Amino acid sequence: MKILFSILLLALTTEFCLAQDFGTPDSRWVFDYAGAWSTGITEVQYEKDTLIAGELIRKFSKKATRKRTIDGQLSSFDLKPVYIRSIDGLIEFSEDAILYNTLINYKARIGHSWKIYRYWNSVITDSIQITIVDTFRTEISGVRLFTQAAEYKSPGWSTFIDTIYEYIGLKWLYILPFDDKDVSRDGGEGGIIRCFKNELLGIVSFDNLQYGSNYKYNCNNLTNIENNSNGTTVIDLYSTPIRDNLQIVNKNNKFVTIRVLNIYGDQVYERTIMPGIQLIDLSALSNGIYFISMDGNIIGKIVKI
Q: Domain holding 245: CATH number?
Protein backbone atom coordinates (compact mmCIF):
# COMPACT_ATOMS: atom_id res chain seq x y z
CA MET A 1 0.00 0.00 0.00
CA LYS A 2 2.84 2.34 0.90
CA ILE A 3 4.56 1.59 -2.41
CA LEU A 4 1.32 2.25 -4.33
CA PHE A 5 0.86 5.56 -2.55
CA SER A 6 4.44 6.54 -3.43
CA ILE A 7 3.81 5.72 -7.10
CA LEU A 8 0.61 7.81 -7.14
CA LEU A 9 2.39 10.70 -5.43
CA LEU A 10 5.19 10.53 -7.99
CA ALA A 11 2.64 10.59 -10.83
CA LEU A 12 0.84 13.62 -9.41
CA THR A 13 4.12 15.40 -8.81
CA THR A 14 5.21 14.67 -12.36
CA GLU A 15 1.89 16.00 -13.71
CA PHE A 16 2.04 19.34 -11.92
CA CYS A 17 5.78 19.82 -11.55
CA LEU A 18 6.79 19.02 -15.09
CA ALA A 19 9.72 21.25 -16.02
CA GLN A 20 7.99 23.06 -18.88
CA ASP A 21 10.68 24.80 -20.87
CA PHE A 22 9.62 28.00 -22.61
CA GLY A 23 11.42 30.16 -25.10
CA THR A 24 14.31 27.85 -25.92
CA PRO A 25 16.97 29.13 -28.36
CA ASP A 26 15.28 27.25 -31.21
CA SER A 27 11.86 28.84 -30.56
CA ARG A 28 10.15 31.07 -33.08
CA TRP A 29 6.66 32.55 -33.14
CA VAL A 30 4.76 34.14 -36.05
CA PHE A 31 1.73 36.21 -35.05
CA ASP A 32 -1.01 37.52 -37.27
CA TYR A 33 -1.58 41.27 -37.40
CA ALA A 34 -4.92 42.87 -38.31
CA GLY A 35 -4.88 46.60 -37.62
CA ALA A 36 -7.14 49.42 -38.72
CA TRP A 37 -4.73 50.67 -41.41
CA SER A 38 -2.60 47.65 -42.22
CA THR A 39 -2.27 43.86 -42.03
CA GLY A 40 0.75 41.61 -41.71
CA ILE A 41 2.75 39.51 -39.27
CA THR A 42 5.01 39.92 -36.26
CA GLU A 43 7.89 37.46 -35.83
CA VAL A 44 9.39 36.76 -32.40
CA GLN A 45 12.52 34.66 -31.99
CA TYR A 46 15.38 34.01 -29.62
CA GLU A 47 18.25 36.48 -29.81
CA LYS A 48 20.57 35.66 -26.91
CA ASP A 49 20.95 34.74 -23.25
CA THR A 50 22.10 37.63 -21.09
CA LEU A 51 22.84 38.27 -17.42
CA ILE A 52 20.84 41.15 -15.95
CA ALA A 53 21.26 41.94 -12.24
CA GLY A 54 22.80 38.50 -11.77
CA GLU A 55 19.86 36.64 -13.39
CA LEU A 56 19.92 34.65 -16.61
CA ILE A 57 17.44 36.30 -18.98
CA ARG A 58 16.50 35.34 -22.52
CA LYS A 59 16.19 38.20 -24.95
CA PHE A 60 13.85 37.81 -27.93
CA SER A 61 13.86 40.04 -30.99
CA LYS A 62 10.63 41.16 -32.66
CA LYS A 63 10.24 42.06 -36.31
CA ALA A 64 7.10 43.48 -37.92
CA THR A 65 6.01 43.24 -41.55
CA ARG A 66 3.04 45.40 -42.51
CA LYS A 67 0.98 45.68 -45.70
CA ARG A 68 -0.80 49.02 -46.01
CA THR A 69 -4.50 48.53 -46.72
CA ILE A 70 -4.91 51.55 -48.99
CA ASP A 71 -2.31 50.61 -51.64
CA GLY A 72 -0.70 47.30 -50.61
CA GLN A 73 2.71 48.84 -49.87
CA LEU A 74 4.90 46.70 -47.61
CA SER A 75 7.30 47.78 -44.90
CA SER A 76 9.41 45.83 -42.43
CA PHE A 77 10.91 47.15 -39.20
CA ASP A 78 12.33 46.07 -35.86
CA LEU A 79 10.32 46.34 -32.65
CA LYS A 80 11.60 46.64 -29.10
CA PRO A 81 12.77 43.24 -27.78
CA VAL A 82 11.03 41.29 -25.04
CA TYR A 83 12.83 39.69 -22.09
CA ILE A 84 11.71 36.33 -20.69
CA ARG A 85 12.84 34.40 -17.63
CA SER A 86 11.66 30.90 -16.74
CA ILE A 87 11.72 29.76 -13.13
CA ASP A 88 10.47 26.19 -12.61
CA GLY A 89 7.29 26.55 -14.68
CA LEU A 90 6.79 30.24 -13.90
CA ILE A 91 7.23 32.33 -17.06
CA GLU A 92 7.82 36.05 -16.57
CA PHE A 93 8.16 38.72 -19.25
CA SER A 94 9.40 42.29 -19.38
CA GLU A 95 9.66 45.02 -22.01
CA ASP A 96 12.47 46.86 -20.22
CA ALA A 97 14.31 44.06 -18.35
CA ILE A 98 13.40 45.84 -15.09
CA LEU A 99 9.69 45.34 -14.37
CA TYR A 100 8.47 41.75 -14.82
CA ASN A 101 4.99 40.23 -14.96
CA THR A 102 3.87 36.61 -14.75
CA LEU A 103 2.86 35.70 -18.29
CA ILE A 104 2.31 31.96 -17.64
CA ASN A 105 2.25 29.79 -14.53
CA TYR A 106 2.30 26.17 -15.68
CA LYS A 107 2.01 24.96 -12.08
CA ALA A 108 -1.14 26.94 -11.35
CA ARG A 109 -4.08 24.68 -10.49
CA ILE A 110 -7.71 25.31 -11.44
CA GLY A 111 -8.99 28.41 -9.67
CA HIS A 112 -5.55 29.96 -9.17
CA SER A 113 -5.50 33.66 -10.12
CA TRP A 114 -2.95 36.45 -10.55
CA LYS A 115 -2.63 39.87 -12.18
CA ILE A 116 -0.27 41.36 -14.71
CA TYR A 117 0.26 45.11 -14.90
CA ARG A 118 0.93 47.76 -17.50
CA TYR A 119 3.31 50.57 -16.62
CA TRP A 120 3.96 54.13 -17.61
CA ASN A 121 7.17 55.47 -16.11
CA SER A 122 6.99 52.70 -13.45
CA VAL A 123 3.42 53.71 -12.53
CA ILE A 124 0.69 51.06 -12.97
CA THR A 125 -1.84 52.23 -15.58
CA ASP A 126 -3.76 49.02 -16.35
CA SER A 127 -4.12 45.43 -15.21
CA ILE A 128 -5.32 42.06 -16.45
CA GLN A 129 -6.49 39.35 -14.07
CA ILE A 130 -5.74 35.80 -15.18
CA THR A 131 -7.57 32.79 -13.69
CA ILE A 132 -6.95 29.15 -14.56
CA VAL A 133 -10.32 27.52 -15.34
CA ASP A 134 -9.16 24.12 -16.63
CA THR A 135 -6.07 21.96 -17.24
CA PHE A 136 -5.74 19.08 -19.69
CA ARG A 137 -3.46 17.57 -22.34
CA THR A 138 -3.34 18.42 -26.05
CA GLU A 139 -1.52 16.38 -28.68
CA ILE A 140 0.45 18.53 -31.12
CA SER A 141 2.94 17.04 -33.60
CA GLY A 142 2.61 13.70 -31.82
CA VAL A 143 3.61 15.21 -28.46
CA ARG A 144 1.14 15.43 -25.54
CA LEU A 145 1.45 18.95 -24.19
CA PHE A 146 0.26 20.19 -20.81
CA THR A 147 -2.47 22.75 -21.56
CA GLN A 148 -4.36 25.34 -19.56
CA ALA A 149 -7.55 27.26 -20.22
CA ALA A 150 -7.26 30.72 -18.67
CA GLU A 151 -9.80 33.51 -18.23
CA TYR A 152 -8.59 37.06 -18.89
CA LYS A 153 -10.38 40.03 -17.29
CA SER A 154 -9.52 43.72 -17.63
CA PRO A 155 -11.50 46.96 -17.10
CA GLY A 156 -13.02 48.10 -20.38
CA TRP A 157 -12.05 44.83 -22.08
CA SER A 158 -14.25 41.84 -22.87
CA THR A 159 -13.62 38.79 -20.66
CA PHE A 160 -12.46 35.81 -22.70
CA ILE A 161 -10.79 32.42 -22.43
CA ASP A 162 -7.37 31.71 -23.93
CA THR A 163 -5.56 28.41 -24.39
CA ILE A 164 -2.00 28.11 -23.09
CA TYR A 165 0.21 25.30 -24.41
CA GLU A 166 3.39 23.96 -22.90
CA TYR A 167 6.44 25.28 -24.85
CA ILE A 168 4.23 27.44 -27.11
CA GLY A 169 2.34 29.76 -24.79
CA LEU A 170 -0.91 31.58 -25.58
CA LYS A 171 -2.99 30.79 -28.66
CA TRP A 172 -5.19 33.86 -29.00
CA LEU A 173 -3.19 36.63 -27.34
CA TYR A 174 0.09 38.09 -28.53
CA ILE A 175 3.11 37.46 -26.31
CA LEU A 176 2.43 40.89 -24.73
CA PRO A 177 -1.23 40.57 -23.59
CA PHE A 178 -1.95 44.33 -23.30
CA ASP A 179 -1.04 44.73 -26.96
CA ASP A 180 -4.50 43.53 -27.99
CA LYS A 181 -5.92 46.87 -26.83
CA ASP A 182 -3.64 48.80 -29.19
CA VAL A 183 -3.97 46.86 -32.45
CA SER A 184 -7.33 48.37 -33.43
CA ARG A 185 -5.65 51.76 -34.00
CA ASP A 186 -2.48 50.17 -35.43
CA GLY A 187 -0.60 50.98 -32.26
CA GLY A 188 -0.03 47.34 -31.39
CA GLU A 189 2.42 44.73 -32.55
CA GLY A 190 0.75 41.33 -32.87
CA GLY A 191 -2.36 39.24 -32.62
CA ILE A 192 -3.29 35.59 -32.91
CA ILE A 193 -0.49 33.06 -33.32
CA ARG A 194 -0.13 31.62 -36.84
CA CYS A 195 2.97 29.45 -36.56
CA PHE A 196 5.35 28.14 -33.93
CA LYS A 197 8.62 26.26 -34.28
CA ASN A 198 11.08 24.50 -32.01
CA GLU A 199 13.13 21.29 -32.27
CA LEU A 200 10.69 19.19 -30.24
CA LEU A 201 7.52 20.06 -32.15
CA GLY A 202 8.95 21.15 -35.50
CA ILE A 203 6.75 23.68 -37.29
CA VAL A 204 3.22 23.94 -35.88
CA SER A 205 0.60 25.70 -38.01
CA PHE A 206 -2.52 27.03 -36.26
CA ASP A 207 -5.73 27.31 -38.27
CA ASN A 208 -6.57 30.82 -37.12
CA LEU A 209 -6.86 32.70 -40.42
CA GLN A 210 -10.63 33.09 -40.18
CA TYR A 211 -10.07 35.19 -37.06
CA GLY A 212 -7.18 37.32 -38.27
CA SER A 213 -6.07 39.08 -41.46
CA ASN A 214 -5.78 37.80 -45.04
CA TYR A 215 -2.05 38.50 -45.13
CA LYS A 216 -0.25 35.66 -46.95
CA TYR A 217 2.32 33.69 -45.00
CA ASN A 218 3.35 30.03 -45.47
CA CYS A 219 3.65 28.28 -42.11
CA ASN A 220 4.96 25.09 -43.76
CA ASN A 221 8.39 26.66 -44.24
CA LEU A 222 8.00 29.97 -42.37
CA THR A 223 8.11 31.98 -45.57
CA ASN A 224 6.66 35.40 -46.29
CA ILE A 225 4.60 35.05 -49.48
CA GLU A 226 3.76 38.71 -50.07
CA ASN A 227 5.91 40.34 -52.76
CA ASN A 228 7.64 43.43 -51.39
CA SER A 229 8.02 45.34 -54.65
CA ASN A 230 8.87 48.55 -52.81
CA GLY A 231 11.79 47.09 -50.86
CA THR A 232 12.24 46.73 -47.13
CA THR A 233 11.97 49.71 -44.84
CA VAL A 234 13.75 49.37 -41.53
CA ILE A 235 13.70 51.88 -38.69
CA ASP A 236 14.93 51.49 -35.09
CA LEU A 237 13.57 53.66 -32.26
CA TYR A 238 15.62 54.33 -29.13
CA SER A 239 15.40 56.27 -25.86
CA THR A 240 11.79 55.65 -24.92
CA PRO A 241 10.39 56.82 -22.52
CA ILE A 242 11.74 60.17 -23.66
CA ARG A 243 11.86 63.69 -22.27
CA ASP A 244 12.82 65.83 -25.27
CA ASN A 245 14.65 63.91 -28.02
CA LEU A 246 13.81 60.66 -29.79
CA GLN A 247 16.72 58.83 -31.42
CA ILE A 248 15.89 57.12 -34.71
CA VAL A 249 18.15 54.94 -36.84
CA ASN A 250 17.14 54.97 -40.50
CA LYS A 251 18.67 51.80 -41.98
CA ASN A 252 17.38 52.51 -45.49
CA ASN A 253 19.38 54.00 -48.32
CA LYS A 254 16.78 56.71 -48.80
CA PHE A 255 15.02 59.56 -47.06
CA VAL A 256 11.87 58.59 -45.15
CA THR A 257 9.10 60.69 -43.60
CA ILE A 258 8.30 60.13 -39.94
CA ARG A 259 4.98 61.23 -38.46
CA VAL A 260 4.01 61.37 -34.78
CA LEU A 261 0.37 60.66 -33.89
CA ASN A 262 -1.42 61.14 -30.59
CA ILE A 263 -3.64 58.44 -29.05
CA TYR A 264 -6.60 59.71 -31.13
CA GLY A 265 -4.74 59.22 -34.41
CA ASP A 266 -4.15 62.95 -35.01
CA GLN A 267 -0.80 63.94 -36.53
CA VAL A 268 1.13 66.24 -34.19
CA TYR A 269 4.58 66.19 -35.82
CA GLU A 270 6.18 65.37 -39.18
CA ARG A 271 9.76 65.25 -40.36
CA THR A 272 11.72 63.75 -43.27
CA ILE A 273 14.93 62.10 -42.12
CA MET A 274 18.05 61.01 -44.01
CA PRO A 275 19.75 57.60 -43.66
CA GLY A 276 21.66 57.03 -40.43
CA ILE A 277 21.20 58.14 -36.83
CA GLN A 278 18.85 61.08 -36.29
CA LEU A 279 17.63 62.96 -33.21
CA ILE A 280 14.08 64.32 -33.35
CA ASP A 281 13.19 67.14 -30.97
CA LEU A 282 9.76 66.43 -29.44
CA SER A 283 10.10 68.83 -26.53
CA ALA A 284 7.09 70.85 -27.73
CA LEU A 285 4.74 67.90 -27.27
CA SER A 286 2.79 67.35 -24.07
CA ASN A 287 3.60 64.34 -21.91
CA GLY A 288 1.75 61.19 -22.90
CA ILE A 289 1.67 58.24 -25.30
CA TYR A 290 2.38 58.73 -29.00
CA PHE A 291 2.69 56.49 -32.05
CA ILE A 292 5.37 56.79 -34.75
CA SER A 293 4.08 56.34 -38.29
CA MET A 294 5.95 55.77 -41.56
CA ASP A 295 4.48 54.99 -44.98
CA GLY A 296 1.03 54.81 -43.41
CA ASN A 297 2.07 52.15 -40.88
CA ILE A 298 2.58 52.49 -37.14
CA ILE A 299 6.18 51.40 -36.49
CA GLY A 300 6.45 52.11 -32.79
CA LYS A 301 5.03 53.59 -29.63
CA ILE A 302 6.77 56.09 -27.33
CA VAL A 303 6.02 57.58 -23.95
CA LYS A 304 6.98 61.22 -23.35
CA ILE A 305 7.53 62.11 -19.70
A: 2.60.40.3080
In DSSP notation, 41-108 reads EEEEEEEEEEEETTEEEEEEEEEEEEEETTT--EEEEEEEEEEEEEETTEEEEESSSSS-EEEEETTP
Do 184 and 239 have their domain in common? no
Q: Are residues 173 and 275 in the same domain?
A: no
Give how far the C-alpha of residue 157 lies from the chain's centroid of Cα atoms, to the nearest Å: 18
Q: Is residue 211 assigned to a domain?
A: yes
How many beta carbons lie within 10 A of that of residue 178, not counting itself? 21
CB atoms within 10 A of CB 76: 20
Q: State which H helix or E strand residue 3 sits in.
A: helix 2-16
Tell me how many domains the chain contains: 2
Measured distance CA(234)–CA(253) in Å, rounded: 10
Total Cβ atoms within 10 A of residue 193: 25
Rounded to an integer, what is the distance from CA 262 to the centroid of its chain?
22
Is 126 inside a domain boundary?
Answer: yes
Using alpha carbons, select from 116, 91, 90 the residue that is nearest to residue 101: 116
Q: How far apart are CA 98 and CA 276, in angstroms?
A: 29
Q: Is 262 found in the same domain as 167?
A: no
Check: CB of residue 243 under 8 Å from CB of residue 304: yes
What are the 10-residue block averages of pLDDT along the chain, 305 residues in total?
Answer: 40 42 88 85 91 85 88 85 90 90 94 91 88 95 94 86 94 87 73 91 80 79 65 57 82 80 82 83 86 74 81
Together in a domain, 161 and 55: yes
How far is CA 48 from its chain centroid? 17
- Whether residue 2 lies inside any domain: the answer is no
